[in-house]
From TrEMBL:
Native species: Streptomyces triticirhizae
A Pfam family per the record: HTH_31
GO MF term list: DNA binding
Protein name as catalogued: XRE family transcriptional regulator
Residue ranges of domain HTH cro/C1-type in the record: 11-42
Entry-linked SUPFAM superfamilies: lambda repressor-like DNA-binding domains
Length: 50
């Protein structure tokens, strides 16, 4: 990884280094698959408004 990596790129690198699929990461992190995909693409996770 270089310092110019985006957070999404870093997340993908770490996930792959641990041998996880996006589905596996989503399950372990209690997130939807869509959220994991969006984070890796560079989109932020939406916050719930109470």
């Amino acid at each position: 990884m270089n310092d110019d990596s985006s957070p999404g790129d870093r997340l993908r690198e770490l996930r792959r280094a641990r041998g996880l699929t996006q589905e596996g990461l989503a399950e372990r992190a209690n997130l939807s698959l869509g959220v994991v995909k969006k984070l890796e693409r560079g989109g932020g996770a939406r916050r719930e408004r109470w």
